[in-house]
Design a protein that fits this description.
Helices cover 35% and strands 26% of the residues. It folds into two domains: 5-98 and 190-221, 2-Layer Sandwich (Nucleotidyltransferase, domain 5), CATH 3.30.420; 106-188, Nucleotidyltransferase, domain 5 (2-Layer Sandwich), CATH 3.30.420. A hairpin with a 5-residue loop joins strand 1 (5-10) and strand 2 (16-22). It is globular. The mean pLDDT is 91. Helix 1 (38-53) packs across helix 2. With 231 residues, it is of the alpha/beta class. A five-stranded mixed beta sheet has the order 3-2-1-4-5, sandwiched between helices. Strands 10-7-6-11-12 form a five-stranded mixed beta sheet, sandwiched between helices. The protein is built from eight helices and twelve strands.
């Protein structure tokens, strides 16, 4: 097997990103933060990135996609598009945690890394990571809580990254003071190239997801279901 060639898609949050990566180098990437629904421009972005990469779908080894946590409609759009491409090409899929992707974008930070994704309804999706012997290690599962609760036991230097870190920056500063660090503004957006990078070892080890059973990881029930139970 030569250099792995992966098309990666992220639609987990307000931003939308598509990249084609060959082994360790980026061939093409488009990221947009436009507020329209991702369904309007995702396929167009995929076609443009494929064109820029100079590859055809048949030359790809597989597709990587963020499987959550994130917005319900966003995740569904990204995952259904990738499942369609997988079905058309017969190439496998690897799902990646959106929180893992954000953590990797901060993986130079020598202390605790806390990605936060705005889950709306006054909550954030979060997890925690730490660099150990040059490897990023996850400490605990992806969870959803009000931000105060997500910080409750933090008493050490911590880097916050993601759109949730932006939304709740002032509250975090009030609570954590000088222990709180924040990623550079451009790093709060998930990059599809990061998603591709995270998927690479899984493709190499044939540790791919079953396309038929591949579903988003919401962590929280959808707003439609929540409205049914609260009304």
């Amino acid at each position: 097997m030569g250099d792995m060639k992966i098309l990666a898609v992220d639609t987990a949050t307000k931003s939308c990103s598509v990249a084609v990566v060959q082994e360790k180098s980026l061939l093409a990437e488009i990221t947009t933060g436009r507020k329209q629904t991702h369904s309007k421009h995702l396929m167009e972005m995929i076609n443009r990135v494929m064109g820029l990469s100079g590859l055809s779908l048949s030359e790809l080894d597989g597709f990587a996609v963020t499987r959550g946590p994130g917005t319900f409609t966003g995740l569904r759009i990204g995952i259904s598009s990738v499942k369609g491409l997988s079905a058309a090409s017969g190439k496998p899929i690897v799902g990646v945690s959106s929180l893992d992707a954000l953590a990797v974008q901060a993986s130079y930070f020598p202390y605790l890394i806390c990605p936060l994704i705005d889950a709306r309804r006054g909550e954030v999706y979060f997890s925690r990571y730490r660099l150990r012997n040059g490897q990023l290690k996850k400490e605990g599962d992806d969870q959803v809580f009000p931000p105060e609760k997500a910080l409750v036991d933090l008493n050490e230097a911590c880097l916050f990254i993601g759109d949730g870190a932006l939304s709740y920056q002032q509250m975090i500063l009030n609570k954590m003071g000088t222990s709180a660090f924040f990623a550079s503004s451009f790093q709060n957006t998930i990059r599809a190239s990061t998603v591709a990078y995270l998927s690479m070892n899984k493709f190499k080890n044939n540790d791919t997801d079953d396309v038929g059973r591949f579903v988003p990881r919401y962590i929280r029930r959808s707003d439609a279901e929540l409205n049914l139970t609260t009304s």
